[in-house]
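Open question from group meeting: does this chain pack into something compact, or does most of it stay loose? Before anyone orders reagents, we agreed to write out a predicted structure and look at it together. Recording both the input and the output here so the notebook holds the full record.
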Amino acid sequence: MDRQCSERPHSRTPMGRVSSAVSQNSRISLPVSTSMKDSSCMKVHQDSARRDKWSHPTTILLHKSQSSQATLMPQEHRMFTAEAYSAATCFKMLQDMNSADPFHLKYIIKKIKNMAHGSPKLVMETIHDYVRDNPEISSRHKFRLFQTLEMVIRASDVLEETWEKTFTRLALENMTKATELEDIYQDAASNVLVAICRHSWRAVAQHLETELLTGVFPHRSLLYVMGVLSSSEELFSQEDKACWEEQLIQMAIKSVPWTQQEQSPEKAFLFTYYGLILQAEKNGATVRRHLQALLETSHQWPKQREGMALTLGLAATRHLDDVWAVLDQFGRSRPIRWSLHSSSPKNSEDLHWKWASSTILLAYGQVAAKARAHILPWVDNIVSRMVFYFHYSSWDKTLKQSFLTATLMLMGAVSRSEGTHSYEFYQTSELLQCLTVLMEKEPQDTLCTRSRQQAMHIASSLCKLRPPIDLERKSQLLSTCFRSVFALPLLDALEKHTCLFLEPPNIQVWPVARERAGWTHQGWGPRAVLHCSEHLQSLYSRTMEALDFMLQSLIMQNPTADELHFLLSHLYIWLAPEKAHERQRAVHSCMILLKFLNHNGYLDMKDFKRIGQLVGILGMLCQDPDRATQRCSLEGASHLYQLLMRHKAGEALQAESQAPKELSQAHSDGAPLWNSRDQKATPLGPQEMAKNHIFQLCSFQVIKDIMQQLTLAELNDLIWTAIDGLGSTSPFRVQAASEMLLTAVQEHGAKLEIVSSMAQAIRLRLCSVHIPQAKEKTLHAITLLAQSHTRELVATFLNISIPLDSHTFQLWRALGAEQPTSHLVLTTLLACLQERPLPTGASDSSPCPKEKTYLRSLAAMNMLHELQFAREFKQAVQEAYPKLFLALLTQMHYVLELNLPGEPQPKQQAQEAAVPSPQSCSTSLEALKSLLSTTGHWHDFAHLELQGSWGLFTTIHTYPKGVGLLARYGGARAGRGSLAPSLNTDAVTCLPSRGPPPFLYSPVLLEVLPKQAALTVLAQGLRDPSPEVRVLSLQGLSNILFHPDKGSLLQGQLRPFLDGFFQSSEQVIVCVMGTVSDTLHRLGAQGTGNQSLSVAISARSFFNDERDGIRAAAMALFGDLVAAMADRELSGLMVPLLLHLKDQCPAVATQAKFTFYRCAVLLPWWLLHTLFCTLAWERGLSARHFLWTCLMTCSQEEFSIHLSQALSYLHSHSCHIKTWVTLFIGHTTCYHPQAVFQMLNAVDTNLLFRTFEHLRSDPEPSIREFATSQLSFLQKVSARPKQ
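Structure tokens returned:
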């Protein structure tokens, strides 16, 4: 600058001459004003002022004589003296501008301004020389000099080219200089350049363009000058203004190369000033033209896109319509349409437009942010455009982040706008759908960006707008957010997965979190990149906070119980996953929500009807193996308890306020009551918390105390939750659910409702419970429920017991775990069993019954059968035996009746109307058989089993005969002391109508009932409307017990009957033997008198008859005779019966078994039950050996009789009997060889040898082996000499 100034043609200045003069004669002084003198004596500002003070004289004194001499000088000399005087004065004032006195400074500036109007050239030259000759002056002093220079230039009408260039360079040098004054110093120098533009703006513009396009990036002062030039209306004429704007466009076009590169922070400032320039422009067409040119540049770099959007936003502050039109036109342009349909760029030119959609999204966000005062009517249009570009642009991280950033700016503008609540925004649901899609696309195994939390913050803002979000969209949002956050891996896994990337992604965190933690960073932008595990933890924590804030925003906008249930219902799904960290996150959010409600009082719990479900879930989570989950669950339960207590206290206060009391009283324990109307109530204080023991407990004791505060409906809800927990796959949840169920039933089981539905649900869940302790507690809960709800549970389990499985049977056993309940269960089942509706007949309109009501009776029958084997019901079954016996006997007849169609039906209709299969009849029969065998009445069972008579109960026609046999062989015995409570009118009416009344015709009836009572029962039967009952009753009155004289008459008929045995007709003989058997039964205790031996001998003589029917009848008669006899003289006939067990006729073999057993009972033998089982079901040598052992052991004194009877059968014509007797003798020979051979003659011995020889070829291996060994043994024994 100095060099250029020295080259000026008029380098000699008045100031220079003054300096020379002063140096030549230091005594020369100039007259100055008093004020000037006074000011020169003032103390100057700090060190810089001192330096100026010592550098130059403070005054210039010109002696009076010299002044007078000046008047005598020539005119030129006088002019020079005046000019020198003015220059010296100006120089002195410039020097005094460093003063700290504001009043003096104001005076100096005013004087210089006045001087500038008169001699601007002199002032400018003085300022230039002062700055050049005093480079060490302070920045503040120079700042004031620049302000003065600007004022002088503005006051000048004409600015010479020399001064224009000089001061332009001076301004350019100092406007980028860094001083302690920072921007104000640079702005002062910049204002000098602006002032020069009044005289020559084109030259200044050329300098600006040169500086703008040179270097890395233009300094802010250049942009400042350009902004002032564009915004000022005084500097340019209308024509110059247009030229200036055209030059700006050319400068923007030339700046494209450096705008396409990654920008430093200073470079982005250009877009701000550009936007401000366009904001100040009044002509909308000009704004459009500039914005269109800007958007036609490259969109490849992020800073470029952000800068463009910022420029558009700033311009929209005053030109919203124009900016909207530019964006709309740009969105319809060919490059944008290409970028929407092309996902892979083919060349570098395509890269310039690939992310143009992101620029548009950011632009809409900036437009909303900068034009927020007028943005509300535009919101729906902006959202619709953003939604469009979101859906139809190529998806990548750039688009995602641009969309989130723009939406955040839009929501911020809307939230800050006044009158937002008076608007209805109809595009919010579409925007919410975009957020949902964005969350779904987030990678589930990484967490590197703030996208999740940004999306949830946006959703929170959307919840505050009108109209409210519909439930479907809200549900989808909640489900997506929960899945996106809760399902993230553990933080350690997230960190490891991030390290596996070839290029690890940058982890973005909030700047606040960065500053709070003191983390290091790279760069100073809003997306600082952090590289440590703590950063990931912070990002995760912020994400969780965003989710919690969204939940709180939803409940704040709709503080109702339905909304809370809606939120919790979506949260419940994540409270039950298998992964512990997912449960931990979900229960933490649940706890935060409850804490928020507790501390802020947004919700009145009286409207929340599903609190039981929440208590149940929190209670189960209190048993979670994860400690953090336990703590959160317990804390959540405590907040819930506070809410409940506050509600209870509020109701109490309200009741007391309505009562005629002067003062409201406190609770009995002295604790203050919560006022439900005070929604801003604070949480319980330390004193109240100390009194409330729930905060000092853990596990289910907490839930137990909370249960005391629940209503009946809420308790039902809690129990349903526990039942659902039984079906969980988590062992701890199943265990916790069973404990909670048991606790609830123990405390409140008596007042529960809908027990039937609960029992059905427990049955469904029980099959999935594999933990013994949990299953035991669940069944115990059923036992406790049965104490108060027996009938409901029986009816429920009865409906689900066809077919019966092991889990349902466990429930039945649980019902009878306590003796009083087991009796009631059997009584209820008997009542259900006696409900025997017959299916309605088919008609034209209804070919088959609509409801099979008889299934209930069949189910009861099936359960009675199964419960006979359960130890819990053993005593109850024993005590209820008479009723069960008659009920099951009648049930068999009922099942047979179900199989009889009422009217002829077509074949197809008959099949459709089909009723229970023979399996049902078999079940009823098995129930009766098991009843006899399990209650100690196995003798009765044995009588029918050995006869094979159970099959008589399978058809309706043979059923009476079966009942008769049961009454004859088992009913009498069973009746002694057992059937007495049940033999009444029902015994007549409930039994089948065909045949004699078996039980009432029993000879031992009077042992059961008194004679008069029996006569009364039968007399009532004579008046019964049913003719069958009347006939049965009449037959019962003919019992010999009521007519003792009939005994002698019947005994007198026996002799003629015995003569009938020798008829030639087999049928006649069989019939006569049957008649004798019936007579023996009717005689009962009177017996046959002295004719027993005759009857026995007559019957015994037919044991070996060749006719099968006669052999069977004779053995049956012999068995009846044995049952009626009291002596044991006929026991010697046991061997024939034993040998006929292998009779070739099945009927004979059956009768032989039965008679053999009856004889064994009469003797009596030991091990009768084993004997019965052997006779009934066992085969082979082991069974035969056991029978032989019983015979020989129990009747050793009759050994010779038995052996002689056996030897006689060696000559039998039946090969089966011959084989059996051979084996019998073989066993006898093994144990009594000498006795056998003493009784054998030569013929018997030879026959015995031949028989054993024949048995060596028997098809059964065991018999062949036995025959071989016996043959060898007999040969050895027979070879010994007889003693």
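Observations to bring back to the group:
The chain is about 70% helix and 0% strand.
The mean pLDDT is 75.
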